[in-house]
Amino acid sequence: MKKKAYDIVLIDLNLPDSHGLETLKKILAVDESLPVVVLTGLNDQTLGILAVKEGAQDYLVKGEISGNLLARVISYSVERKKTEKMMKASLKEKEILLKEVPHRVKNNLQVISSLLNLQSRYIQNADDVMMFKESQNRIRTIATIHEKLYITDDFNHIDFADYIDRLATDLFNTYKIERKKIPSPALWTSMPV
Questions:
Q1: Would the pLDDT of 172 be above 70?
Q2: What secondary structure, in 3-state letters, does 84-148 show?
Q3: Strand, helix or coil at 149?
Q4: Residue 80's pLDDT is what?
Q5: pLDDT tens for each residue of 23-42
Q6: Do residues 80 and 35 make contact, with C-beta atoms less than 8 angstroms apart?
Q7: What confidence tier does 92 reach under pLDDT thresholds 50, 70, 90?
Q8: pTM above 0.85, yes or no
Q9: Residue 174: CB partners within 8 Å, gap ≥ 6?
Q10: Which residues neighbour 51 within 8 Å (Cβ) at sequence distance 6 or greater?
Q11: Is the distance from CB of 174 to CB of 136 less than 8 angstroms?
């Protein structure tokens, strides 16, 4: 059976075969982008307000409905749902693009580091080679901070201990330093400055 497309649904939640908000929930479960306008009795505006909180676009009180009011509510409800749908699609597109940014930054930093490494192979002067190594370390530091920021859920805090550990490991590897030559932190306070 082919699914019919509707522009809007007008429902009365107080019919003998209807079960209040459950009917609204069932309709929205089938198609949450479908605008629903609820018709309520004169003494049942509370149900209309609850229906709007549950996802209905609007409610109208029976006995107070004019042709102009009905036309305005229908037009508004349909346009609002179209706008919501466009905004959700736009937001999803932006989220995808934002997820791509960290990967591009990481790749660019890796390219810079690789270019510095390639160039340093052609340099004979030890001081110049050291300058290239220092530049690579700076790039790695930026990359490490950047990576920490984009994998965290809390942008106000990063795991500083992990960051320092990764940074120290990179430095040890770059300068070919043996870890056993570094005094333990407990001895640092007694060392002369």
A1: yes
A2: HHHHHHHHHHHHHHHHHHHHHHHHHHHHHHHHHHHHHCCCCCHHHHHHHHHHHHHHHHHHHHHHH
A3: helix
A4: 87
A5: 888 888 888 888 899 888 76
A6: yes
A7: very high
A8: no
A9: 133, 136, 137
A10: 13, 21, 24, 36, 38, 40, 59
A11: yes
Give the Cβ contact number of residue 112 at 10 Å: 16
Q: What is the pLDDT of residues 114-164, one digit of tens each?
A: 999 898 888 889 899 888 888 888 888 888 777 777 777 776 776 777 777
pLDDT at 86: 92
- DSSP characters over 150-189: HH-S-TT---HHHHHHHHHHHHHHHHT--GGGSPPHHHHT
Question: What distances in angstroms separate CA 2 from CA 5, 25, 143, one per listed residue?
Answer: 9, 22, 53
Q: Which residue in this structure is represented by tokens 């990359």?
A: 143
CB of 40 closer than 8 Å to CB of 61: yes
CA atoms within 13 A on the CB side of 135: 18
Burial of 176 per CB tally in 10 Å (0-12, 13-18, 19+): exposed
Is residue 51 packed enough to be buried (19+ CB in 10 Å), middle (13-18) or exposed (0-12)? buried
